[in-house]
Specification:
heterodimer; A: 322 residues; mainly alpha; ABC transporter involved in vitamin B12 uptake, BtuC; 14 helices; 70% helix; B: 364 residues; 16 helices
Chain lengths: 322, 364
Amino acid sequence: MDFMTLIQLLDSTIRLATPLLLACLAGLFSERAGIFDIGLEGKMLAAAFFSAAIAALSGSVWLGLLAGIGASLLLSALHGLASITFRGNQLISGVAINFLAAGMTVLIAQDWFRQGGRTPSLSGNARFEPITLPGADQLAQVPVIGPLYAELISGHSILVYMAFAAVPLTWWVLYRTRFGLRLRAVGENPAAVDTAGVSVIALRYAAVAICGLLCGIAGAYLSTALQAGFVKDMSAGRGFIALAALIFAKWRPWHALYATLLFGLFGALETRPDVITAVIGMKVQGQLLGALPYIMTVIILAGFVGKAIPPRAGGLPYVKER
Amino acid sequence: MDIMPKWAEVVLVPLISLLLAAALSALVILGIGEDPVAAVKLMVSGALGSTYGWGYTLYYATNFMFTGLAVAIAFHARMFNIGGEGQAMLGGLGVALACLYIPWPHWSLALIGAALGAAAFGAIWAAIPAYLQAKRGSHIVITTIMFNFIAAAVLNYVLVNLMRPAGSMDPATAQFPKTVHLPTLHDLLAPLGISFSKAAPANVSLIVAVLACVFLWVLIWRTRIGYEIRAYGHSESAAKYAGISPVKITMIAMLISGGLAGMMAINNVMGEAERLVLNATEGAGFIGIAVALMGRSHPLGVFLAAILFGFLYQGGAELALWTSIPRELIVVIQALVILFTGALDNMVRLPLEKLFLMLRKGGV
C-alpha cells in the first residue's frame, strides 16, 4: 500500500467518523445526565431530512442546518417529555422516536418533493463545500507533510472541524465547569443534586437539548456535506454505531473520538477490500467489517476487556419523594 | 390497593392511547393533503372487504403474534427484548436448513421440524444476550440491538457466500421442495365448503400462532415457572428472597422469547416465500414491540393487537397502491402507538387515576 492510498483511506475515515463522533458526543451528554437515548438514529435522520429539504428550498445550507437542528431538538423535547416529565420508559421512547423519524421523513419528503422519499440534489450554496485551509496549496508539493496537510487535514467541510472541536469542548464543559459537574452528578445520584437545591429536571432537559443540538449537526452533515441530498433511511444504523462507540469509550469524550475514528476506519475499509488484502495478505469479508463495531461492543459490554460501567442513575426516572 | 378498577386498566387506558395515536395519524394524513375518512374506508375495504384482503391481514397478523408474544414474555420478566428482528432472521435460517437438507415425507412433519429449527435458532440468538445479562450484567437492550445488526451480517454472509445456488445472482436460498409446501387457508377451508382466496398467503402457521398464544397464557398464569417469571418481573429482590434464581429466570424467559420470535419464520419463510431471502422479516420483530405494549403483554391482548396491526399493514399497502400516501404512514402509526401506550403511558394514566379517585370520593 503506497502513501497516497493510506492518505485516502484516512481521509475517508475522517469523513465517516464525523457523524458518528457528533452523535456519540450527543449520547454522551444525555447518558451522563442519566437519560438513555437509543433515539440518536431517529434524531439524525430527521435532521438529515430537514436540513436537506430546507437547503433545497431556500438555497442556503445554513438555514438548512438550523432547520435540521430544530427538528432534532423537537424530537429531543418529546424524549424529555416522555422520560423526564412523565417518567416513562426511556428505551421505549427512543424506539418510538426512531420509528417516528423513519416514517415522517419519507411521508413529508413525498409530499413536498414527490421524488420517492428523497430531496432534490443539492449543489452550490445549498451544500457544505470543502474548505481549503490556508497554505494547503503551497505546501502540497512538500513531501510527506504536504499531502498530509493538503489532503488529510485540509479540504473538509466546516462541520468536520466543528465535530473535532466539540471533543475538547465537551471535555471542558463536563470536567471544568459547574454545569458539567452537576450534569455528571445528576446521572450518578440525582437525589444528592436535588438535596443541594439544584433542579434535576432542568439539568436533564438541558442535557437532552444539547444531545438534540449535536444530533442535528450530525444529521445535517449526512445530507448536506457527506452526500448531496436526503434519501430514505440514510442514517443507516449510524445512531446505533454511535451508541456502540459511546459504550466502547466508556462515556468519556476523548475516548469517544478514538472509538469513532476506529469505527470510521472500519467503514472506510469496507469500501476498499483491496487494501485489506494487500496489507494482511488475506481476504476479509465485508460483512465482518460491517458487524465488527457491534461485535466489539458486545465483548466490551460483557466485560471481557475492561468493564464498561454506565452512569449509575441511567435509565431511571427521578421521583422526588416516594 | 388499585386506584382504578380493572376494566379501566385493561380496556380504557389502551383505548385512549389508541385513540390519541389515531387522532394524530389523521392529522398527519390531513397534513399531506389527503382525506382521513376516505383513507380509513379504503383501508377497511382493502384489508377486510374480501377474503383476499383478510388473507393478507391474517398473514401479517401471524407474524406479529409470534413477535408480539416474544416481547411480551420478556416484559413479564421485566426485560426489553429489542432483538426480535435478529432472532426472527436467524429463525429463518433454521427453517431454511430444515426444509432444504432434510427430505420430509409430508408437510405436517416438515412443519414440526421447521418450527423446532426456527425456535432453536431464535432461542440461541437470544441466549447469548441473556447469558451476558444474567452473568455479566451487560444491559440486554444494548446487546440485543447489537445482535440485530450482527444477525443481519451473518444472514448476508450465509446467503451470499454459502447457501446461494450456483449461478444465481440473487442473495437467497434455493426454492424449498414441493413436499414442504404449507396448506394455505384456501386449502384448509375448502373441505369445509368455505371459499377463501387462493392468492392470499395466510396459511396453517396462523393456527400455530394461536396455539402459541394459548401456550403462553398457560405458561404465564398456570405454571410454576410462569409464576416465578412474574414474581421476578415485579420485584427482583423479593423473588431472590423467595429462592428464585435470577440467572435461571433471565435465561428461561429469554430462551422462550427468542424461540417465539424465531418461529415467525414458519410463516414468512416457509409459508409465504418458500425460500430464505435477505430482509425476510421486514421489520416484524420491531412491530412486536408495539403489539406487546398495546396488548398489555397479555396473550389475548397480543392476539387482538396483532390482528389490528395486520389490518394496518394490509390497509397501508392498499393506501400506497391507490393514493399518494406512502407505506411509511404505517411506520408513523406504529411509532405513535409505541409512544402513547409505552413511553407516554403516564400521560394517559395519571389524569384517569385522578378522575377515578374523585369519583370514588364523591361516591362515599
